[in-house]
Write a structure and sequence with these properties.
heterodimer; A: mainly alpha; about 0% strand; elongated; B: mainly alpha; Four Helix Bundle (Hemerythrin (Met), subunit A); 8 helices
Chain lengths: ~100, ~190
């Protein structure tokens, strides 16, 4: 008989931490601005998973309400970010994140 | 049952996240991202956040990733990237992984030091934000949005308007001459209007 382990909320929190760390490392090591953006989305999703887990742990609906706000902010961020990337890549199709230095004094 | 769901969805989550980071082709990275987002939606269902699971699939997998792919295809940048070039020279990747492990260690330590209960005080019985078992979660989120978080909700509408205006301004093709030349000075000139 195999002892079936119980899934505790801590498991979800650990998974969220791992996802967040993977997203952060991806943000550090990738140079394509679009892929860096995807890594930011990964980090945001890790945080929403954590929020939903806390919502269940604490029997508190506020955690889920915050996730709605995170979704809105993520959508706004993607719209503006992709606008910047389109403007950048239209000028220089092989641009990497290192080429975003026109604001440097 | 929840164990099975958690293990499968968690493995899909981590595999997708690694795919985003390690795929040299941005289109493959975007598809890996879809896998992660779906797996997170499954984990939402496992935690009885059904509304958020639906929104996750519609907004993230449906809209945001399609937007990513749209930009990739529109600009024709869907070729593979040479991953052997390090952004800042030798040692940068090692440093990034060390920092990533530190980022991972911080919440794990917080979790371990509180016996997997790293959280503050929750809703007490009788509070408005108490999770009701017999009410649909969408009804509770709606009530919470339009009472406790009404001001924040209105501010997000302003944020969305700003984002739309910003996107239009950024995506518009502006000729350099137009920046110097004020069109209002030609308002009475029929030739300039054509």
């Amino acid at each position: 008989m195999i002892a079936v382990a119980e899934v505790t909320p801590a498991w979800y929190l650990v998974l969220g931490s791992i996802l967040f760390a993977i997203g952060a490392v991806g943000l550090f090591v990738r140079r394509n601005p679009l892929v860096m953006f995807m890594c930011v989305e990964l980090m945001l999703n890790a945080v929403t998973l954590t929020f939903v887990t806390f919502s269940r742990m604490l029997d508190d609906i506020d955690g889920q309400t915050v996730v709605v706000f995170v979704l809105v902010v993520a959508a706004a961020e993607v719209v503006v970010g992709l606008g910047i990337i389109v403007a950048l890549l239209r000028k220089e199709p092989t641009a990497t994140a290192d080429d975003l230095n026109v604001l440097k004094g | 049952m929840e164990l099975f769901v958690f293990l499968v969805a968690g493995a899909a989550c981590i595999a997708g996240a690694l795919g985003v980071v390690l795929n040299s082709n941005p289109v493959h990275a975007a598809l890996s991202l879809v896998g992660t987002l779906f797996a997170i939606a499954v984990l939402f269902v496992a935690q009885e956040a059904h509304f958020l699971a639906a929104v996750q699939v519609i907004v993230y997998a449906g809209a945001i990733v399609v937007l990513f792919l749209f930009v990739l295809m529109l600009l024709g940048v869907d070729r593979s990237e040479d991953l052997s070039i390090e952004p800042l020279g030798a040692g940068q990747r090692i440093a990034a992984v060390v920092v990533g492990l530190a980022i991972l260690a911080l919440p794990l330590l917080a979790l371990a030091s509180t016996d997997g209960d790293a959280t503050g005080a929750g809703a007490q019985p009788g509070d408005a934000n108490l999770l009701q078992e017999d009410t649909a979660d969408v009804a509770q989120i709606g009530a919470s949005l339009f009472t406790t978080y009404l001001f924040s909700f209105e501010v997000t509408s302003v944020l969305l308007v700003i984002a739309v205006v910003g996107a239009v301004v950024l995506a518009r093709k502006v000729k350099r001459a137009d920046l110097v030349d004020d069109p209002l000075t030609h308002a009475n000139d029929p030739e300039a209007l054509e």
